[in-house]
Design goal:
The protein has 129 residues and is an alpha+beta fold. It has helices spanning 10-25, 30-35, 40-48, 56-66, 86-96; strands spanning 52-55, 100-106, 116-117, 120-128. Helix content is 41%, strand content 17%.
Length: 129
């Protein structure tokens, strides 16, 4: 999700995105979700539990330390500074059991208009889940 809110802090933006996702999950009827073969209990958990927030560095360390326990191969040659593919992003969220914001990506793999982390020009304030 790429959300833009004027005049809010980074944390406030993440809070607003979380509320936005939660509010979209609530009105869905169980019957509709079951028909679509979706896990209703999982969606309920997403609405109740807060989303996880970790840094890019923490995510990279987690991926390196968990590689031997992974059931599927995630990014064979992951190095610091690589972007995460879809399977890697899904694995991170599944690892924590809730949607996960990964923040402070290296500036080299972000778009030009992302703000740098205050006090450190290398990582940028950016998130994904």
């Amino acid at each position: 999700m790429d959300a833009e809110y004027p005049f809010v802090t980074h944390d406030e933006s993440l809070d607003l995105q979380e509320v936005s996702i939660n509010s979209r999950s609530r009105p869905c009827s169980s019957a509709s979700l079951i028909h679509l073969e979706r896990d209703v209990e999982l969606l309920k958990k997403y609405v109740i539990e807060p989303f996880k927030r970790i840094s890019y560095d923490e995510a990279t360390d987690l991926l390196h330390s968990s590689r031997s326990r992974m059931k599927i191969q995630i990014m064979k040659h992951l190095e610091h500074g690589d972007d995460f593919d879809l399977h890697t992003r899904n694995w991170i969220s599944n690892h924590f059991g809730v949607p996960t914001f990964v923040m402070n990506y290296p500036a080299d793999i972000t778009v030009f208009y992302m703000k740098p982390v205050p006090g450190n020009e290398k990582p940028c304030i950016m998130w994904t889940y």
